Amino acid sequence: MVPPLQTIRVEPFDAPLGADVIGLDLARPLGDSDLAALHRAHLEHHVLVFRDQRITPSRQVQFSRRFGPLQIHVLRQFQLPSDPEVLIISNIVQDGQPIGLGDAGHYWHSDLSYKAVPSLGSMLQAQELPT
Question: If pLDDT is split at 50, 70 and 90, which confidence band does 10 have?
């Protein structure tokens, strides 16, 4: 069964790159034409923002796989045990130990860009953001 089309609108930021994707519910199955529209938007805008999504890590992995094979980060100690494709990034320390990679977002970088076939991109799901 083909999932029904979602009404997706891409609104570019008033900036050199980036766009908001509006009208997409990542918790619902994504049809091929919706996926193609997202892929075109990613190639055009380079950074896509999907606001107010409520998806599980497993659903995030499932969605990400639609764009191609996933790479598992080399820092195994911060992988989500249930979904090793997810790398935990956090500045939270519990019992003297960081719960995730704490310095991942200080400067722009590209994960695993040294690979023979680098990733198309990375997907970050923010759980808590400063105002």
Answer: very high
